[in-house]
Amino acid sequence: MLGRLQDGTLKEVRVNSDGNLIMTGMQPSNSIFTLLHDSVYATYPSDTQEVYTTYLNGAIQEIVTVDYTNSAKNVLVSVVRS
């Protein structure tokens, strides 16, 4: 996941084993998001689906839907960008 610092720099953000977000010191090398954005909103329409919507200046840039086989989310089924 990516996070944007106040200066506009993108950094990689991870969730640690305690469920806390941590920002690494490295620039992201790979991301599910391909378009420039200034915010990401996550929704969870079901126990097996996550939907991430990126915005730039209030306009939707892309939507990434992640589907899992079960509510434990231990087996990924698909990631679809639209």
What does this structure look like?
The chain is 0% helix and 54% strand. The protein has 82 residues and is mainly beta. The strands form two sheets. Strands 4-5-6-7 form a four-stranded antiparallel β-sheet, with no helix packed on it. The chain has a three-stranded antiparallel β-sheet with strand order 1-2-3, with no helix packed on it. The radius of gyration is 13 Å and the shape is globular.
Question: How do you describe this structure in short?
Answer:
Helices cover 0% and strands 54% of the residues. The chain is mainly β.
Most strands sheet: 4 strands, antiparallel
Weakly predicted, low-confidence segments: none
Helix count equals: 0
What is the rounded distance between the termini? 17 Å
H and E string: EEEEEEE
Please indicate the percent range of residues in DSSP E strands (runs of 2 or more): over 45%
Q: Helix amount, in percent?
A: under 10%
SS-derived structural category? mainly beta
Q: Choose one word for the global shape.
A: globular
List how many beta strands DSSP finds: 7
The number of domains is 2
Q: Kindly state the mean pLDDT as a whole number?
A: 78
Instruction: Identify the quaternary structure here.
Output: single chain
Strand order of the largest sheet: 4-5-6-7
Rounded to an integer, what's the Rg over CA atoms? 13 Å
Which helices and strands occur, and which strands form pairs?
Elements: E1 2-4, E2 10-15, E3 21-23, E4 39-46, E5 49-56, E6 59-68, E7 76-81
Antiparallel strand pairs: 1-2, 2-3, 4-5, 5-6, 6-7
